[in-house]
Specification:
There is one protein chain. A hairpin with a 5-residue loop joins strand 8 and strand 9. This protein folds into three domains: 59 residues, SH3 type barrels, CATH 2.30.30.30; 59 residues, OB fold (Dihydrolipoamide Acetyltransferase, E2P), CATH 2.40.50; 57 residues, OB fold (Dihydrolipoamide Acetyltransferase, E2P). By secondary structure, it is mainly beta.
Length: 185
């Protein structure tokens, strides 16, 4: 069992009969009453995110997830195909199951497949991914006194704020947890 005192981002547990991952939480002490915990959760089966409030000290059953290494192959409409590196099986996930991870899927990218009761439910991309800038406005020297930024569209369609010296065709490293530019690759 997991108590509200043991909560950390990314922890998985059963909430209201559904497997959930904790995205964010906040412990709040109200003036007269007892403390409460506000949680932002993601349903692992459907991919939906929702907010819930519970009392401090509540306990939830822990869920054990299995992990496997897969490689991204291709997209077919709303279906994304991956290959298991051990068994060479084709694993198909929907866009809803992938959530924000679909913004970082580039050819032959190795990801961590998350399985619940032997069924694939999602993938977890590496912390940083190298992507090509498909389009960005040209940056002109002297535009700002401090390091300014501009929007850049990557090969997957993700829009990232990049420094002015980045141009179309450059390779950049993007943090998959925040979606922010890290460095030129």
């Amino acid at each position: 069992m997991i108590s509200t005192g043991d909560l950390k981002k990314g922890i998985t547990f059963e909430f209201e009969g559904q497997p959930c991952a904790l995205l964010d939480w906040q412990h709040v002490k109200i003036g007269r009453g007892g403390a409460i915990v506000r949680m932002k959760l993601r349903n692992l089966r459907s991919g939906a995110t929702f907010d819930r409030t519970c009392d401090a000290g509540d306990k939830f059953p822990r869920i054990t997830l299995e992990h496997s290494t897969v490689t991204y192959q291709y997209q077919d409409g709303d279906q994304y195909h991956f290959m298991d590196m051990r068994t060479y099986d084709d694993i198909v996930l929907s866009a809803e199951q992938l959530g924000d991870a679909k913004n970082y899927l580039i050819d032959s990218l190795e990801l961590d497949l998350i399985l619940l009761d032997g069924q694939p439910i999602s993938v977890e991309p590496p912390e940083k991914v190298v992507m090509r800038v498909e389009y960005t406005e040209p940056g002109f020297k002297g535009d700002t006194a401090t390091g300014g930024t501009k929007p850049a569209t990557t090969e997957t369609g993700l829009v990232v704020q990049v420094p002015l010296f980045i141009s179309t065709g450059d390779m950049i490293r993007v943090n998959t947890t925040t979606g922010a530019y890290v460095e030129r690759a």
